[in-house]
Amino acid sequence: MLDLEFVRGQFPAFAEPSLEGWAFFENAGGSYTCQPVIDRLTRFYHQRKVQPYAPYPASEAGGAEMDEARSRLAGLLGVETDELSFGPSTTQNTYVLAQAFRQRMMPGEAIVVTNQDHEANSGPWRRLADDGIEIREWKIDPETGHLDPAALEKLLDEKVRLVCFPHCSNVVGEINPVREITALAHAAGAWVCVDGVSYAPHGFPDVGELGCDIYLFSAYKTYGPHQGIMVMRRALGEALPNQAHFFNGDTLYKKFTPAGPDHAQVAASAGMVDYIEALAAHEGVAPREVAGLMHAHEVTLMQPLLDFLGNRNSVRLLGPRDAAHRAPTVAVALQGRQRRRRGRWRSTGSWQGAAISTRCARCRPWASIRRWACCGSPSCITPRSTRWKSSSRRSTGCCDAGGLTLPRGRYLSAGQQGKPPCQSHPPSSSGSAATCG
């Protein structure tokens, strides 16, 4: 298990009095920011906030820090430095990519998307149908949300130019076999675009080893500033038309950034690598091995919760029951009387001492309709967590049908709250007592 005292010590938010007593199961909406990122951002605004790359000290230092961020992140991800670029967000990066493909593709050629994707890696591609590009949908299993590679094979032919899919689902959390899927697409002559937004917070991937042509994720979900990070492998990047200023068309990392970058946030992104390297040194492993430590820690925390939910009649667990095959995004469909009480989740999305991302039920109602209603429930609750939770804060995961005992010991239920403290579970460090059914 990770040294959580060390991990939490890298995030100032854990010492912030205004956040004390809250448990956040909404990590998909953004993570806490680590201290090295905050330090670098503050320094840039204090000492480097000038036009970078000019021949005077402050400008040279600012440009050097931007270059450092790109170089070190590329090294962590296993790609060349100029294959990594920054943009305002992953959604906007994908829209720029879609325009580049629109210019390169001919009417009648095809792109494969999934109905497991987040809108960011689906909507921009689907809109290309207006330009005569065929959009083929790789559909999930309607009962489990699983994407079967065998179903993709049936969609691939000589017309397909691009296959887009998520590294893991932002609802059911299942980790998709990127290498296997990439090999299938490449064998059919198609490029591959992977949305890593829901995966990267749980461990930066070795993109070079995965083999995909595009990999996208969001820095504000990986303990950094609000930037979208995109890996574009050289062969594809050189084949696509320039989307930036004409004088940037020959520079791979500038070619798909139409506007000027946010200098300070780009520079501060190196702080994410500072954190990973500090954690690696503390744990006695190489930086690229930290992802495995994170995943192992999360599996240990999540498996008892999955076991519990998988055996309840009041909820139906969506996605794999084996924690090793998913990220710690846990989707449950309410059953019976809990399903009838879904309005309380829809109206607030939070209870005393807890903030929960109800991705299907409230934050993304269209997602529930288009993708997950086919899993048999319009009432889907999706708590998300990450590795800084501990087993003691998790308690036993759930203590009542349809309810969750969250890390701070607050009782959450689709139809009930405020139960008296359970004598079997001591109060947490914040003074909040756990409850049981």
Automatic annotation (TrEMBL):
Region called Disordered, residue ranges: 414-437
Keywords attached to this entry: Lyase, Pyridoxal phosphate
GO MF annotations in UniProt: lyase activity
InterPro entries registered for this protein in UniProt: Aminotrans_V_dom, PyrdxlP-dep_Trfase, PyrdxlP-dep_Trfase_major, PyrdxlP-dep_Trfase_small
PANTHER family named among the record's database cross-references: CYSTEINE DESULFURASE, PYRIDOXAL PHOSPHATE (PLP)-DEPENDENT ASPARTATE AMINOTRANSFERASE SUPERFAMILY
Stated name of the protein: Selenocysteine lyase
Record domain Aminotransferase class V: where: 24-337
Origin organism lineage: Bacteria, Pseudomonadati, Pseudomonadota, Alphaproteobacteria, Rhodobacterales
Presence of the UniProt keyword Transmembrane in the record: no
Superkingdom of origin: Bacteria
Polar residues bias spans: 425-437
